[in-house]
Structures are given as structure tokens and as C-alpha cells.
């Protein structure tokens, strides 16, 4: 085995990219066979990054650190947090999906609903595929979101919250910062989804270009301007005073967009995502906030 190749970030990126390129699951199930997602991008967080413990402290004791999630999957492997890496990846929505979604004002477009349903099925397969290839190659790996114990609980501070957050993990890994609507603004915008895998492997850690400023790339938080996502929400669930109202958002999704998508598109997922398009951070960091590189 070529150990050098198999411990490189390039190897991990190739596994992810090949699956994105070749898997029949990366498909919106439209007649033209178009892919569910644009090309993925990868970043790496340290398993002992103090931000993970901070997120747990803010969310609640039920939230997993990377070490806790890894140990659930591999109870017989003794590992320190320092030995672990968290591979976080972003799957951007395609231009066609974003273009369709921009035209909508109260319901998700068909492509958006399909990407949320079929695209997330692909994302689940990608998480498991990556974890399985790494494990088979001698680097035990787990996708926390696919663990049987993955669940949603009531957080005193945040209301309904999962015990592993792909968005928060992506923030720690340097992929993006939070916007007024709670979505993560990445270099490829906010119209994206995330996945992650924890592994015992010595991968190079990605530098966070925003240090620890978790709202650095949102115009509202950085400059007091914009607020475009407020106007995109059909149910008033985003305000400049209070940010994202999860309860109102979930109610709209449960009572309005899910029944609509199920009936109209025959997709069973729970989409809305109007606040992720027709905004300055849809497909990139707002220009005036983009880091100089
Ligand atoms: S639309 Fe504007 S206010 Fe809303 S998250 Fe994006 S940059 Fe921030
Ligand atoms: S997902 Fe829909 S309901 Fe929820 S905040 Fe965004 S636009 Fe509003």
C-alpha cells in the first residue's frame, strides 16, 4: 500500500469526487439525467478543535464531540481527540436548480424539492461510501449523521437541535460562516448541503479564513446591510431583530411545503429553502466580504 498517497488530502478528495462523478444516485431523476449537485469541495477540522466542545456546551450535553461520535462507532478503539480529523464537504446546488428556485415566492421549485429528496439520498450514500473506503484502507471512519443514535433533541438555547450538526462542523472546518437566516455562507454560497466523516488519520487541517468570527461573511452582521433573506421568507421566520425563528420555519415546512412537494412532485422530504436563493450570498461570499487570497 502506498501510505503517502493514502494519507493525503488529495486521496480523500478523489474518493469524494469520483463518487460524485460516477454514482448513479447523484441524479435529480428528471428525464435528462442531470446531476443533483455541482462539484463538491472538502475541508478538514481537527478532532480536538476547541470549537467542538464550545458547540456542545452551547447546544447541550446530548451533542457529540468528534471523539464521542467516533467511540460510538468503534467502542474497542482507544483514541484521543487529537488523533482524529473531521472531513467536511459541501455540495453546491446546480445553476439550473438555483435558477428555478429564484423564480419561486412561496413554494419550493421542482428541482429544489428533488435535490432535497434524491440529492440527500445521494449525500447519505456519499457519507457511508467515504467512511467505508477509509475504514477498509486502515483508517477507521464514521459518518455521525448515519449513526443509529443520530437524533434531534430540545436544546435550552437553540430549541430543536440534532446531536451532530453538519453546518456547525463545516464552520469549524473553515467552509463558511452563518448568515442572518442561519444558513452557512460558503465560497460556493448558501444554496448548498453538507456532509461529514470522522476518521483516525493524519490529514492536514484547513485554516479558517474567518478565524472564529461565525458571522463574518453575512452582510447584515458585518455591515448592517442587506437583509434580502428576510424578504424571501414567505412566513416571516427571519427578522433582522431576531435572526431565524426555527419554530416558525419548521411549522411552514411541515404544514405547507412538505404537503405541497409530496402532492406536486411526489418527493417525501421537507424542502423550502427560499431564503437560500435570490440573495447576495446565494452562490458566493458577498463580494465586499470575500477574503483576499
Ligand atoms: S441574504 Fe444578506 S442578510 Fe441574509 S444571510 Fe445573505 S448576506 Fe446575510
Ligand atoms: S426555509 Fe423557508 S420558511 Fe424557513 S426561513 Fe427559509 S424561507 Fe423561511
Individual helix count: 10
Query: How does the overall form come out from the CA principal axes?
Result: globular
Mean pLDDT level: 95
- Strand order in the largest sheet: 1-2-8-3
| Helical residues, percent | 25-40%
Bound molecules: iron/sulfur cluster
What is the gyration radius calculated from CA atoms? 19 Å
What low-confidence regions span 5 or more consecutive residues with pLDDT below 50?
none
Total tally of structural domains: 1
Strand-residue proportion: 15-25%
End-to-end Cα distance, whole Å, is 36 Å
Q: Major β-sheet, in short?
A: 4 strands, antiparallel
Secondary-structure element series: HHEHHEHHEEEHEEEHHEEH
Helix/strand class: alpha+beta
Q: How many β strands by DSSP? A: 10
Please characterize this protein's 3D structure.
With 293 residues, this protein is an alpha+beta fold. It has one domain. 37% of the residues lie in helices and 15% in strands. It has ten helices and ten strands. Strands 1-2-8-3 form a four-stranded antiparallel beta sheet, sandwiched between helices. A two-stranded antiparallel sheet has the order 4-5. It has a two-stranded antiparallel ribbon with strand order 6-7. It is globular, with a radius of gyration of 19 Å. It starts with a helix and ends in a 28-residue tail after the last helix. The mean pLDDT is 95. The structure holds iron/sulfur cluster (2 copies). One iron/sulfur cluster (SF4) binds next to α10.
Task: Please supply descriptive tags for the structure shown above.
37% helix; 15% strand; binds iron/sulfur cluster; alpha+beta; two-stranded antiparallel sheet; 293 residues
Amino acid at each position: 500500500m502506498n501510505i503517502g498517497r493514502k494519507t493525503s488530502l488529495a486521496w480523500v478528495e478523489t474518493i469524494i469526487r469520483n463518487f460524485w462523478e460516477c454514482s448513479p444516485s447523484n441524479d435529480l431523476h428528471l428525464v435528462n439525467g442531470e446531476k443533483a449537485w455541482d462539484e463538491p469541495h472538502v475541508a478538514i477540522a481537527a478532532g480536538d478543535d476547541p470549537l467542538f466542545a464550545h458547540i456542545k456546551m452551547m447546544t447541550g450535553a446530548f451533542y457529540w464531540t468528534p471523539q464521542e461520535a467516533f467511540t460510538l462507532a468503534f467502542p474497542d478503539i482507544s483514541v484521543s481527540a487529537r488523533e482524529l480529523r473531521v472531513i467536511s464537504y459541501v455540495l453546491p446546488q446546480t445553476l439550473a436548480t438555483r435558477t428555478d428556485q429564484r423564480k419561486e415566492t412561496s413554494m419550493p421549485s421542482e428541482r429544489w424539492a428533488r435535490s432535497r429528496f434524491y440529492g440527500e439520498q445521494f449525500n447519505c450514500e456519499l457519507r457511508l461510501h467515504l467512511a467505508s473506503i477509509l475504514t477498509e484502507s486502515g483508517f477507521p471512519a464514521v459518518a455521525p449523521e448515519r449513526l443509529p443514535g443520530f437524533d434531534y433533541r430540545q436544546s435550552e438555547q437553540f430549541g430543536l437541535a440534532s446531536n451532530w450538526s453538519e453546518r456547525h462542523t463545516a464552520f469549524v472546518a473553515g467552509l463558511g460562516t452563518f448568515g442572518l437566516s442561519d444558513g452557512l455562507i460558503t465560497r460556493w454560497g448558501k444554496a448548498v448541503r453538507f456532509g461529514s466523516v470522522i476518521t483516525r488519520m493524519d490529514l492536514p487541517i484547513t485554516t479558517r479564513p474567518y478565524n472564529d468570527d461565525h458571522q463574518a461573511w453575512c452582510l447584515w452582521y458585518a455591515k448592517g446591510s442587506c437583509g434580502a433573506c428576510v424578504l424571501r421568507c414567505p412566513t416571516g421566520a427571519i427578522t433582522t431583530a431576531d435572526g431565524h425563528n426555527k419554530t416558525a420555519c419548521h411549522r411552514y415546512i411541515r404544514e405547507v411545503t412538505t404537503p405541497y412537494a409530496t402532492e406536486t412532485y411526489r418527493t417525501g422530504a421537507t424542502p423550502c429553502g427560499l431564503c437560500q436563493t435570490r440573495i447576495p450570498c446565494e452562490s458566493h461570499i458577498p463580494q465586499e466580504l470575500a477574503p483576499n487570497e
